[in-house]
């Protein structure tokens, strides 16, 4: 596929009305579902990352966001420029390099990667962020729409641990998806199960219902090629896990990155395993290193 044709296909996937988008993956075939043991579906273990480990529930429904206080204000930092939003707007510029990233961060982006979800936090201690899906073409990096996002209550960290209420800074691959709702048409392996159920209230008293309707696993301290619910933590349980992209509930997360429901659907439909997508995430000052 030529780069111009690919860019047109990407814009269509991101900007077309939801009821006009295909319900299946490439070639009319749905991506394979992942199977996990019944013991995992029972969810009798405590999950970290999007959840807290202090719950007293005997059986936890999927991943529960921890309760807490509203995030304090943080100093706002410059964010990447907003991309054109389609329609009659001028085409977004094609950039020679991903904006806002310094040499330390850029060096971690794999050479074969052709899709980058760039999540830029407003400040080190802020839970507000913006996300842009960049597509690498023959001419450079082409940005898609800018999406509002939330990250963890206490902002960002280079050394994430269980229940520290920070999102990890870094570059992580995106290989696996799932959710409580049916596959919206992603090319990623999609694990559809009612086990992706969240309950309770978030840090601002907002309902967490529907938070895990759509999920993309961020490959931080997890085994790739498995369901987002898989509990394997290669770096040990203390380093946390279950860091996901998921549906926004209107407030800070426990460690994940959240996008509006329509933006999660658009992202799922746009990501292509063959383009080796990664997420680059952190506050603006950390990413510019």
Structure summarized in a few sentences:
By secondary structure, the chain is of the alpha/beta class.
Topology, please?
Layout: H1 3-15, H2 38-42, H3 103-106, E1 115-121, E2 128-136, E3 141-150, E4 156-157, E5 167-168, E6 170-173, E7 177-179, E8 190-192, E9 215-217, E10 244-247, E11 257-259, H4 261-270, E12 278-283, H5 284-287
Parallel strand pairs: 1-12, 4-5, 7-8, 10-11
Antiparallel strand pairs: 1-2, 2-3, 3-11, 6-12, 7-9, 9-10
Provide key terms for this protein.
12 strands; disordered N terminus; 5 helices; 289 residues; alpha/beta; two-stranded parallel sheet; globular
What can you see in these coordinates?
This protein has helices at 3-15, 38-42, 103-106, 261-270, 284-287, and strands at 115-121, 128-136, 141-150, 156-157, 167-168, 170-173, 177-179, 190-192, 215-217, 244-247, 257-259, 278-283. It has 289 residues and is of the alpha/beta class. The strands form two sheets. Strands 6-12-1-2-3-11-10-9-7-8 form a ten-stranded mixed β-sheet. A two-stranded parallel ribbon has the order 4-5. A hairpin with a 4-residue loop joins strand 2 (128-136) and strand 3. It starts with a helix and ends with a helix.
**N- to C-terminal separation?**
35 Å
Fraction in beta strands: 15-25%
Fraction of residues in helix: 10-25%
The string of secondary-structure elements, in order, is HHHEEEEEEEEEEEHEH
Which structural class is indicated by helix and strand composition?
A: alpha/beta
What's the average pLDDT?
79
| Multimeric organization | single chain
Q: What's the helix count?
A: 5
Number of strands: 12
Rg over CA atoms: 18 Å
- Please outline the major beta sheet: 10 strands, mixed
Low-confidence stretches: 1-6, 8-48, 51-89
């Amino acid at each position: 596929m030529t780069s111009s044709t690919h860019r047109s296909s990407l814009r269509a996937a991101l900007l077309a009305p939801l009821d006009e988008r295909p319900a299946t993956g490439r070639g009319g075939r749905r991506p394979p579902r992942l199977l996990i043991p019944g013991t995992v579906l029972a969810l009798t273990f405590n999950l970290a990352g999007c959840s807290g480990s202090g719950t007293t529930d005997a059986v936890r429904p999927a991943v529960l966001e921890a309760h807490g206080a509203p995030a304090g204000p943080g100093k706002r930092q410059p964010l990447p420029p907003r991309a054109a939003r389609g329609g009659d707007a001028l085409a977004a510029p094609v950039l020679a390099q991903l904006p806002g990233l310094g040499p330390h961060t850029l060096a971690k982006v794999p050479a074969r990667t052709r899709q980058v979800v760039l999540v830029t936090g407003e400040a080190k201690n802020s839970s507000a962020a913006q996300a842009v899906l960049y597509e690498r073409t023959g001419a450079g990096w082409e940005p898609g729409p800018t999406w509002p996002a939330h990250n963890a209550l206490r902002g960002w960290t280079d050394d994430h641990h269980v229940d520290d209420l920070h999102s990890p800074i870094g570059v992580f691959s995106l290989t696996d998806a799932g959710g409580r709702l049916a596959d919206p048409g992603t090319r990623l392996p999609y694990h559809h199960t009612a086990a992706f159920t969240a309950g309770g209230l978030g840090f601002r008293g907002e309902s967490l219902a529907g938070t895990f309707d759509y999920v993309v696993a961020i490959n931080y301290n997890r085994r790739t090629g498995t369901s987002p619910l898989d509990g394997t933590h290669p770096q040990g349980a203390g380093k946390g896990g279950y860091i996901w992209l998921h549906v926004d509930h209107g407030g800070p997360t426990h460690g994940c990155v959240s996008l509006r429901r329509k933006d999660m659907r658009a992202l799922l439909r746009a990501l292509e395993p063959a383009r080796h997508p990664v997420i680059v995430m952190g506050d603006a000052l950390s990413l510019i290193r």
